[in-house]
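Example 4.3 (complexes with small molecules)
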Amino acid sequence: MRVDKEPTNLTKPNSSLDTIALHPFGGHLEPGDPLTADLTLSTSFKMAPDAGFTAASQGDDPLPIYARWGNPTVHRLERHLCALERAEDAVCFGSGMAAVSALFFSTLSSGDHLVASNICYAGVAELMHDLQAHRGIKVSFVDTSDIGAVADAMTPRTKMVFVETPANPILRLTDIRAVAERAASVGARLAVDSTFATPIATRPLDLGADFVVHSLTKYACGHGDALGGAVLGSRENLEPLRSSALVHNGAVLHPLAAWLIGRSLQTLPLRMRQHQDNAFAVARFLEQHPAVEQVFYPGLSSHPQHELAKSQMANFSGMIAFRARNSKSLRDRFAAEAEILSYAVSLGKTKSLIVLVDTDEVQSQSFQMPPAELEKYRAAAGDGIFRLSVGLEDSADIIADLDRILGS
Ligand SMILES: *Cc1c(COP(=O)(O)O)cnc(C)c1O
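Answer. The structure with pyridoxal-5'-phosphate bound is encoded below.
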């Protein structure tokens, strides 16, 4: 669908993401053009008399007809995301889960094999167990930080490899380039959930992935006021997602949410720098705190995959995981007494959030790992691990809040 200006030469590899985030569409404005994107809420658009109205008749660059097929504000966000991720195409959805569902349901059918990360965002883990139980898709859940395990799981029926890096909740990384090579060797496509990394840290398509998935609800929106999701990749790969998940299943993003997320993308590089700086300060504080047993932050040299983090992430993001003694009583104190930190799910917001991810709960409801894999997970997460989304407050204030609760 046409927008006022399409991405242009600003997306050349050496132009700065700071600039692309603010000027994703090249070309100069004419007198009277708005400097801030318009919001188009219209659900219907005047049609040419010969315009078709099925998914198949939409062609490559259609005029807007009906908002389930495309809306100029949503389309503008898609082009904005393409510029940041250096993708040919993007499709936006009403949430991150809608984006992941669209990916699986549009690319996998009964009898296909999926190789997937055995730990990831809980909702995605549950969806993949559902694909296996009810939709005839065989799923091999593996530790995708172990390239040998990924390679061993591949079969001639493997259609897709799905990884999340850094992965919820223990911030385990996957070597995207290495997994992309293994996937390509059996003709499978690689999808990367890059929500924690954002395009500021990692651009999976440049490393050989076929699809990138984002929950736009997190860092992309960043302000905690809109749900959204996106899948990016080649136009050819995304065509089935647009026609089936959007046009037929109706998993559309509301234009107001698209507008809010597009507004927020302008400051994504700036926010990610501050999230990272604050996370470094908080992670170093936690590492020396006597009540804390272990800290996981990809930017610290103590992270088991710090070398991979350095080569694959241009920004270490703002997510920290840490294990502490008496985690349940600490959890209650965070919920009751924290002033800067909010005890809440979700992440990537301007404000700091903390939540305890209980191992038994996440294992029984989401991950369902076999005993050996669970033992490996427990070695990192213990009986429960705090997931801390470090916000944009002064890091000294975040640290003071943590210290007051951890300290006594
Ligand atoms: C939040 C999240 C999702 C799901 O996104 P929603 O917008 O909440 O539906 C998927 N993957 C990851 C890594 C997430 O953090």
